[in-house]
Amino acid sequence: MGLGLFGEEVRLWYYPRMLRLAIRFTKSLAILLVILSVSVGVGIGYYVVHGGDLSRLEIQGGRSLDKGIELADPKALFEKGEALREKTAALGNDVTTFLSRKTGDTGMPIDARSQVELGNERESVGSGSKGGIQVYFAPCAPADPFGIDDAFLGFLNSAKRSIHGAFFEFELPAAAEVCIEKHKQGVDVRIVSDSNYKGRAAIQSCIAAGIPVVFDNRGAFMHDKFCVVDEKLVWTGSTNITENCMYRNDNNSLVLDSPRLAQDFSAEFDEMFDLHAFGKKSPRNTPYPEVEVGDARVECYFAPEDHVQEAIIGEIGTAQSEIDVMAFSFTSVEIAKAMAARIEKGVKVRAVFDQRQAGTEHSQDDYIAKRGASVRLDNNPYAMHNKVIIIDAKAVVTGSYNFTKSADTQNDENVLIIHSPNVAEIYVREFESLVSGMN
Fold first, then answer.
1. Which of 244, 331, 385, 401 could form a disulfide with 362 if both were Cys (CB 3.0 to 4.6 A apart)?
2. Separation CA 170–CA 194 (nearest Å)
3. pLDDT digits over 381-433, tens only?
4. Buried b / exposed e across 150-187, counting CB within 10 Å, b at 16+?
5. Where in the chain is the domain with CATH 3.30.870.10?
6. Between 28 and 91, where is the model more confident?
7. Do strands 322-327 and 348-353 pair parallel, antiparallel, or not at all (unpaired)?
8. Residue 308 in contact with residue 401, Cβ under 8 Å?
């Protein structure tokens, strides 16, 4: 008598031996599970004892406020991530050491601060055709499969028709590889960049592959950091496409799923790429200055033509309870005065500034501190590169725009003012994380 097993005949007198093997395997698996459970428990206990927040242990790829945007095939993204990690091995141990300091030396392999997901508290900003918003923060570790770097590679990999990027600096080798591969596949890849960085290997490899690149060739900066994919998805924020901005500096970036917003950024891109209209030559012709992205109302501005400083001051003027600031460079006297005026009305102003930029001749950190603002200097040994203002935990100002005169009157810059408590909550958490990391 026998039983068929995967096409083989197994006789009953084999069963005692098979049973013994099964018991041994089960025991081994049980021992392994016990060891893993103890290890995880010890790790979490150590993390909590040393001041960690358990809510920050929820690891996800970005902070999604929607069902998310399908960015890339996981296998392809993994392969690109492997290539990226090989090419960034030269960074050495300084990034890992820095990230350990940023997370309280918890021993965690990645920067959990930049990967906190709303989890069960996640709320939708929109669904289906209404689109959504995803938020990412830097720095991340090069080996982090859910980091801002892989999010950007996935964003590029999602392109089926076009990639139009305006990048102040473009030097990440893996990003260049994706652009070149997409170009070979027939995707319309075009790049605008600042002429100060035309010698970078990544941008030169794109040019050598036949990708058209336009430089501004002027004294002021083409300081934008945005990309439009398939005339639908927009990547923007403070993050340059560099190893420094991905792996060392504090930054933020967003992916917004909105054809109308994509038209706004495409119009700005075309001005620079087709007309070579930079800075003050850039016409004021944004098709949709205000759009709905899911449940968020988004105002879209480009400097210098859209009088961005006036828009920011107007938003500051609406503050009723609190203003939180994360700023790399903050030299605008007018914006500082607008904040001081709200302080006089009882609004609480808190600010985190880059330690190297603060205290300089024109920096306004001392001015607002003397008028009642709570001012802290970030302890990032590289740069606190964000350009963010959060109003009443309901609206967020973010983009490439430093709070300076040159950003407002000379450079090419892009800014979004996002009216959404859900988006604002994510940025407030990042602000609180930066502050707690200084204690």
1. 331
2. 9
3. 999 999 999 999 999 999 999 999 999 999 999 999 999 999 999 999 999 99
4. bbbbbbbbbbeebbbbbbbbbbbbbbbbbbbbbbeeeb
5. 58-287, 298-436
6. 28
7. parallel
8. yes
27-37 pLDDT, tens per residue? Answer: 556 555 645 55
The Cα 415–Cα 387 span in angstroms is 9
- Token pair listed for 289: 């200055």
Structural tokens at position 219? 């004294």
Helix residue ranges, H only, 345-419: 365-370, 405-409
Segment 150-155 mean pLDDT: 97
Question: 58-287: which CATH topology?
Answer: Endonuclease; Chain A (3.30.870)
The CA-atom distances, in angstroms, between 351 and each of 326, 376, 416 are: 6, 6, 19
> Residues in the chain, how many?
439
C-beta separation of 327 from 403 below 8 A: yes
- CA dist 375 and 422 (Å) reads 25
Q: Is 427:394 a contact under the CB 8 Å cutoff?
A: no
Least trusted range by pLDDT, from 5-14, 42-51, 371-380: 5-14
Question: What CATH number labels 298-436?
Answer: 3.30.870.10
Give the tokens for residue 217: 């060739």
Angstrom distance (rounded) from CA 147 to CA 386? 17
Q: Pick from 180, 260, 247: which is nearest to 212 by CA?
A: 180
